[in-house]
């Protein structure tokens, strides 16, 4: 068991060590040799542009460090480059507060999202946040396009849809006063094996005496209109068609509805696409059955409102449809029969802002289905953003109805939003590093299914302000071999050294190495650095606070004397392995205070006149006097009586000082022990110990010791139990008395019995003796008559 604990401790230690290594200083780890790279390393990083900041032996990358560390190392804040990010709201039109029946507004005048445009200036690692407000507007315009499967199995459904226009207009008027409706139909690709290509079947694909229209892929029957009667008229003129296989070509139709905005007549309002079918669907790859291998190009191919490239392009993939529906802000409602509910439910999970409704066998419930699906879709808002530049991340936090707060992926959406409800999103944009181009980028955030969006311009801080003052080919960089920028030289290609004084081809020569050896020794840069261009560049330590410096990297700031486990006692700085003490401190470890005020006794005498003040502490001449000012005498008479009340109140909560114990008795450390044997003995300690025995008001004794330890602190050890005289035990006394009385009674009874036995025996013996000596008269009594009468039978003859 002990071995397991040891192994666990070792593993835990290694884990903590590894974590500590990971959590190093990102600024120094970046090894940045110019300011721009430094500020991209992290949000806390700064660059000291003071030309005289570096010590001898320190590398140029030592200018890059956390701002607090730079200040601590002596760089004035005014000389530190530490740019900050910023945000500016460029367009902030308030969300529309409008009631139904109020003055009619154009769709472009209705605002549901705020702000609309802003600019963010991003510093690497420093997030910029803003609040996005969304309010669902009342009486918002709606465009609804009804896309219907006209294969033969939908014959009875078509009859019910013929009156859909006016009925749906009436129902939707309860939601919005600006409603438009359109109609389109689809069947299948016009190639084998999806349809029969015989001439007769191309004219009438249905069997028997059924009159069907020629097969087609997709047809835009009615552009979006607010004329419900025209919808009824045109839909009433439609005829059923037919195909061979069960899945239909609905995906081709959805793609054309999404991308052919001009033909469909979409406005920048709520766009609903109702997809009605009683069958499954073909998707990308199925076109190979008909010899079609070209992927769908996602473009509009309507001529005379008919899709003309179904035989040329394959069906679109689900991902392609998702992209186009999202790009065009179209919300899809799948109105399908119960048989295909599971299939379209899975499809709905892949297409954001879509819904599935169960269509009755003859589509009689289609109006209620559309109303329910619209309410479901419009009650949820989901934010999406366009593609982000490299290194940029976005975090969402939503604050929905009833104070519900969500983060992560759930932070993108709010549900159960009613008309007029307002929700907010906190959006945080963070950049790591700087994009390769460094140019401004534009991203957009919008609610799925809505045309409104927030346009965000991202500006990146890739260089420091002092970069604008850079001097190319500066004389400060060895006759123009580099750019003097932000207090340091940024060398041209092929040049190295702090002042770019060397060619990279001549760095590792014996002559240059000789100048990096101290006193012509064998160690290059004291084994604490590298010789670069004849000059030592000291290596970095794992701890960014620890540094080598000096001409030969012979100095450091971490190998000075310590006191109290602190470098230079915490009262100075380590410079080249020697402590430089703060004012009023001295000594090799800065552990000797020059302040004598701590030695002043209460009588205003230095060390109470009984010692000398050395390093802020009294050295008492007489060993029996102790304490920081030689005022304490543990073995002097009266010590026990002096501390009696305080010991009593702190140890037992009794005595005269129990009510003011904290105020008057907190000048010593109290340690409780079990019994008197555990009290410190005079020979056990290196300082005098006084043993005390005191009595309290209840005649109880308590024992304690008083001493002043080597740290000049008063220390009291007290036995935790009182030694009280024991009172009479009533029960044993009563029991003893009762027992005594009983025993005495029994003894008296036994004695009486014994005496009676002796008396009786004596009387009996006397009686026996008198009986033997008595002479009785043996004459007969004349009065005596025998009690026996004998009668003889005279007839008895003795036979």
Automatic annotation (TrEMBL):
- Tell me the ranges covered by the Integrin beta subunit cytoplasmic domain, including all copies: 753-799
- The entry's keywords: Calcium, Cell adhesion, Cell junction, Cell membrane, Cell projection, Disulfide bond, EGF-like domain, Glycoprotein, Integrin, Magnesium, Membrane, Metal-binding, Myogenesis, Phosphoprotein, Receptor, Repeat, Signal, Transmembrane, Transmembrane helix
Q: Does the keyword Membrane apply?
A: yes
Q: Where are the transmembrane segments?
A: 730-752
Source organism, top-level taxon:
Eukaryota
Q: List, alphabetically, the InterPro entries matched.
A: EGF_extracell (IPR013111), EGF_integrin_1 (IPR040622), EGF_integrin_2 (IPR057073), Integrin_bsu (IPR015812), Integrin_bsu_cyt_dom (IPR014836), Integrin_bsu_tail (IPR012896), Integrin_bsu_tail_dom_sf (IPR036349), Integrin_bsu_VWA (IPR002369)
Q: Ranges for the Integrin beta subunit tail domain?
A: 640-729
Disulphide bond pairs: 35-45, 38-75, 48-64, 206-212, 260-300, 400-414, 434-692, 462-466, 477-489, 486-525, 491-500, 502-516, 531-536, 533-568, 538-553, 555-560, 574-579, 576-607, 581-590, 592-599, 613-618, 615-661, 620-630, 633-636, 640-649, 646-724, 665-700
Q: Which GO terms describe its cellular component?
A: cell surface; focal adhesion; integrin complex; lamellipodium; melanosome; ruffle membrane; synapse
Family, as annotated: Belongs to the integrin beta chain family.
| Protein name in UniProt | Integrin beta
Give the species this sequence originates from: Amphiprion percula
